[in-house]
Amino acid sequence: MPTTERIDLSNHDLFVDRVPYEAFAALRRQEGIHWNPEAEGTGFWAVTRYDDIREVHRDPATYSSEIGGTSLEDLEPEHVESRKSMIDMDPPRHDVLRGLINRRFTPRAVQVWADQVRRVTNEVIDAAFAKGPEFDFVREISSEVPMQVFAEILGVPQSERREIIEIGDRLLGNADPEYAAEVPDDDSHRHLPFSSPAALEMFAFGRRLADARRREPRDDIITQLVEADLTQQEFDVYFVLLATAGNETTRHTISHGLDALLANPEQMELLRREPSPELFRSMADEMLRWATPVHHFRRTATVDAELAGTEIKAGDKVTTWFVSGNRDEAVFDDPETFDVTRTPNRHMAFGPGGVHHCLGSHLAKMEIGIVYEQLLPRVAEIELAGPVERLRSNFFNGIKRMPVRVTPA
Known about the structure:
The protein has one domain: CATH 1.10.630.10. 44% of the residues lie in helices and 11% in strands. The chain is built from 17 helices and twelve strands. A hairpin with a 2-residue loop joins strand 6 and strand 7. Helix 6 crosses helix 8 and helix 9 packs antiparallel against helix 10.
């Protein structure tokens, strides 16, 4: 069992080889709420138990998304304001912005896309198999399916979807040497989402689409945002949020899901032997629990408070580690076992409820289920053809590359 005093969750290197589940288990058992100093910051509270995480997220009056934003960075108020997206807001403004597109992501609205997701998935699999027995699963399948689908919903031309993925990788992977960009010596970059200059490229991409929709409105999200009463800054950060969230989290879950199935072949065999819509739905939830795509979010205490017996001071950073909550032994039976039949599965991969529960959760679960529903019958064998390369990040549980070798059925 690791010594909790030596656990530093601000260290991205801790997450490179694998998620440090043993460290989170130690924190849950020994502390629950852990004070984590930072070499280049003020330090933060790490909330690691399921019920405590729920308490934080269901009390935005005490634990604000808006005061300091949702990243670990210590930002000046003007920087927080200039990069503030919907996830960095408290009600009521959060509710207004979410309400602009909420109807597109209800269970009924998402179900309309099921046949198209199946069609896209089979076309993507065809294209991947055409490359030969070996290919990168991330590039050819797990990033392609969600981005092709979401490009239609968002209003991005399919010919430009890879540009969204590439900018998103540099934007969200800015702690990884492969994607990190040079930043100015001054603080000018800190007003940008993720403090990344790549945000400027995403802004420009979104503005080009907005100009096109002003000339020719369509039934897509870009048109809705153009017709809403948004400032340029609100449009820019809204587009960044949608363009990245609509692809990155689902893509990483699909990638981790294959990794889990390869490590647990009896689970893959069960899916082959007893395929059913219900089983693929429970499989999707288990993949989300098992490979929580976003490790944590940050809140800021608005007042002095007490959380699970720990005194929290006004202004303290409070981080909620979904990746730990999803392995909490007090909530999940045998949490270290990957079980595609797990029901109920009250995972918090999309958040533990409250106003910031993930808008695209129904779409993501449908896409994950359909990818494997369509993929598994089409492969006689599938195995890793090289090492899985992980993203260096304590925020995103990302897989950059996953080479596979496939024998079609």
